[in-house]
TrEMBL record:
Active site, UniProt feature: 235 (nucleophile)
Family: Belongs to the glycosyl hydrolase 10 (cellulase F) family.
Organism in which the protein naturally occurs: Lentzea jiangxiensis
EC number: 3.2.1.8
GO-annotated biological processes: xylan catabolic process
Name of protein: Beta-xylanase
Keywords in alphabetical order: Carbohydrate metabolism, Glycosidase, Hydrolase, Polysaccharide degradation, Signal, Xylan degradation
UniProt keyword Phosphoprotein present: no
Presence of keyword Signal: yes
Catalytic activity: Endohydrolysis of (1->4)-beta-D-xylosidic linkages in xylans
Length: 302
């Protein structure tokens, strides 16, 4: 196969990218998007601040631009993200208690209902675990509404969009020996044992020298999959360049391919210049849209 999507499809997987609505007029960007990718995540446009800027007033214009472009090209969509401590609208940031819990659940229900039937997988909850060695939850206004906020969000999402896969998504959960990874694992294990509706775990996979691709990545993905969930690489980018970067991209790709329930890989942007990273060259295409060594290393093993 000669594109990432076609190559991933050979094993029944997808290859996706984050898309920004304000770049859909850039013909180089859209050309690569249409050619190479078969799954799309809105980079910011489906987040809480974008979709509910005022309480109970929903705004889907930019998200719809991405969804309609993708569906028009026969691509599928990952919905990102229904509930998160970050990128909350101002009205929500200082809420607490029952009012916040109900506002969060209403948001999950409204957004998942609006897109019902159009989303392959929702990131229902994003980044709810703490960094460091605690293995516990991140403190946030949502966490302070009660430890059951995550399962409540998943139940609301299932009721609103029963055909979509429901994912928990986080970063720095790639290394099996890290406490954060273990904390998420225990939550998924608990959800599965109690029948809380969860179908998948997303690994953001933002890598750099301080957080390198772990040599045990296959183990992490396999152990989560063994709980009875799909796993997905959801926001892949890797700082660096040249052959070193290409080898790391290849390692992540092989880790996914080695786990039957790893259903696909999404990179967090198209060209290096599209990256959310302030500097560096973490993606598969250079600023001019040329394929990098990392691109070829991924395509060669898919
Ligand atoms: C980032 C976007 O790429 C930026 O444009 C935005 O300013 C901040 O958010 N984890 C996530 C993504 O789940 O939503 C984040 O996206 C990157 C980290």
């Amino acid at each position: 196969a000669s594109t990432l999507a076609a190559a991933a499809q050979q094993s029944g997987r997808y290859f996706g990218t984050a898309v920004a609505a304000n770049k859909l007029g850039d013909s180089t960007y859209v050309g690569i998007l249409n050619r190479e990718f078969d799954m799309v995540t809105a980079e910011n446009e489906m987040k809480m601040d974008a979709t509910e800027p005022n309480q109970n007033q929903f705004s889907y214009g930019n998200a719809d631009r991405i969804v309609n472009q993708a569906r028009g090209q026969g691509k599928r969509i990952r919905g990102h993200a229904l509930a998160w401590h970050s990128q909350q609208p101002g009205w929500m940031q200082n809420m607490s208690g029952t009012a916040l819990r109900n506002a969060m659940l209403n948001h999950v229900t409204q957004v998942a209902t609006y897109y019902r039937g159009k989303i392959y997988a929702w990131d229902v909850v994003n980044e709810a675990f703490a960094d460091g060695n605690s293995g516990g939850r991140r403190d946030s206004n949502l966490q302070r509404t009660g430890n059951d906020w995550i399962e409540a969000a998943f139940r609301a999402a299932r009721a609103a969009d029963p055909g979509a896969k429901l994912c928990y998504n986080d970063y720095n959960t790639d290394n099996w020996s890290h406490a954060k990874t273990q904390g998420v694992y225990r939550m998924v294990q608990d959800f599965k044992s109690r029948g809380v509706p969860i179908d998948c775990v997303g690994f953001q996979a933002h890598f750099n020298s301080g957080n390198p691709v772990p040599s045990n990545y296959h183990t992490t993905l396999q152990n989560f999959a063994a709980l009875g969930v799909d796993v997905q690489i959801t926001e892949l980018d890797i700082e660096g360049s040249g052959n070193t970067q290409a080898q790391q991209y290849q390692g992540v790709t092989q880790a996914c391919l080695s786990v039957p329930r790893c259903t696909g890989i999404t990179v967090w942007g198209i060209r290096d210049t599209d990256s959310w990273r302030a500097s560096g060259t973490p993606l598969l295409f250079d600023g001019s849209g040329n394929k990098k060594a990392a691109y070829n290393s991924v395509l060669n093993v898919l």
